[in-house]
Design goal:
5 helices, mainly alpha
Length: 167
C-alpha cells in the first residue's frame, strides 16, 4: 500500500459576527426613501448617495437661461382638457392635433339617420359634401350608410377647420 502525503492543516478562523443582509444591486438602502419610518428622505438617493448603477444621482439638467420651461406650466394636460388656446378650445389629441368642438358620435348618428339629406356633413361644416348628398339622396342611401359607419369608426375625421372630431 502506498501512503499519501498529508497536507498541512489550516488554522481555523474564528467565527465572524452575523451581518444583516445587504440590499440587492441597484436598490436603495433599507430605511431610507419617502416611506421610511421616522420621516424618511425626500428621494430614494439622499445626500449624493450612489444611484442604482453606482453613479451619483443627478438632479436633472439645469434650466437654460432665457428659455421657458417646456410644455404647459402645470405639466402635461390630459386629452380633451381646455388649455386656453383659441386654436384648440378642447385641447389636443395624443398626436398634437387640436380637437374640434364637434363630436364624431353625433356626426355619425346624424349621417346614419338623416344621411340622405347630408345632415352629418352639414353638422361637421363640410357644406359641399352635404349638398352633394342632399342632391343625390345620400348616393341612394349607400353613400350615407358607408359615410356614417366611417364617421363612427374612424379616428382621423376632421371638421371644416381641419380639427379632429372629439370621441
Amino acid at each position: 500500500m502506498s501512503e499519501q502525503p498529508q497536507q498541512p492543516q489550516q488554522p481555523q478562523q474564528p467565527p465572524q459576527p452575523q451581518q444583516p443582509p445587504q440590499p440587492g444591486y441597484g436598490y436603495p438602502n433599507p430605511g431610507t426613501g419617502p416611506y421610511a419610518a421616522g420621516g424618511g428622505q425626500a428621494g430614494p438617493y439622499p445626500g449624493g448617495q450612489a444611484g442604482p448603477y453606482g453613479y451619483p444621482q443627478q438632479p436633472g439638467y439645469p434650466q437654460q437661461p432665457g428659455y421657458p420651461a417646456a410644455g404647459y406650466p402645470g405639466g402635461p394636460v390630459p386629452p380633451g382638457t381646455y388649455t386656453g388656446d383659441p386654436n384648440a378650445p378642447y385641447g389636443y389629441d395624443p398626436y398634437g392635433r387640436p380637437y374640434s368642438d364637434k363630436s364624431k358620435v353625433v356626426a355619425g348618428v346624424l349621417q346614419l339617420t338623416l344621411g340622405g339629406f347630408g345632415v352629418g356633413r352639414f353638422y361637421m361644416g363640410h357644406v359641399g359634401l352635404g349638398l352633394a348628398q342632399l342632391f343625390t339622396c345620400g348616393g341612394l342611401g349607400i353613400w350615407a350608410l358607408i359615410d356614417g359607419i366611417m364617421l363612427l369608426v374612424g379616428n382621423d375625421n376632421t371638421d371644416a377647420q381641419g380639427r379632429v372630431l372629439r370621441g
